[in-house]
Amino acid sequence: MPFYNLGYRLIGSLDGYPFPPADLIDLVIGTKEIAWYQLGGLFMHQAIMTFLLRNGISIESLRSILDFGCGCGRIIRWWAALRIQCEIWGSDYNPLLIEWCQKELSSMAKFTVNGAQPPLEFSDDKFELVYAYSVFTHFSRDMQQPWLKELARVVKPGGYLLLTVYGIRVGWRSGFSNDLFQQLDDQGILVFGDEQSGSNNCAAYHSEEYMANQQSLGLELIDFMQGGVRDSSEQDMYLYRKAVPTD
After folding, report:
1. CA dist list (Å): 95 to 70, 91, 113, 149
2. Model's pTM, two decimal places?
3. Domain of 95: which CATH number?
4. pLDDT tens-digit series, residues 205-224
């Protein structure tokens, strides 16, 4: 165990739930540091709530939430502190991560393993809120639209889909050339490591125009914040509302 984790293990977490093993933390966020697992999850949960509240969405009114790509629970665990009456699910394609969540976080949420490709096991229109933190950042080009369509399917009409992606802000930090920025503008999505979809070795960047134009899936973009993710990744945040049928 890294020495810098020892104090966290001894004191315990801020939310009262156990910390995952260091190798699971590393698998999800690329470091074994418990500090970043705990505080990064808290910061992202706060960012999600702030984004919802600034759009007039009452947290207390939510009755069903899905954390798609929940990893080893660093965001989903913070919903418990709100003590809202809500059905909460976490989904991830890695069975080791879900096994840990089922063992340690089952008192506050339900968990399931999803495939690398759609569909999810959920019925149509099940969730009032679906969020995916840094998930579409690691999908190959051909998996982007199928998963967007699938998440739209499980959102209730009038419900919300919140996504974070690498945008131009991350491109600047990554040292994009003018040619790469032009490719991103022209193509809408720029993917490196396409053949390793679903892993941290695949990095997908999204243009604002591409993310805004998802009306064909019944998704209306209602808010956007460049660099809205308040951690070191500085990913962009998008909030969509699923259209309500008029028939």
Report:
1. 11, 10, 6, 23
2. 0.96
3. 3.40.50.150
4. 999 999 999 999 999 999 99
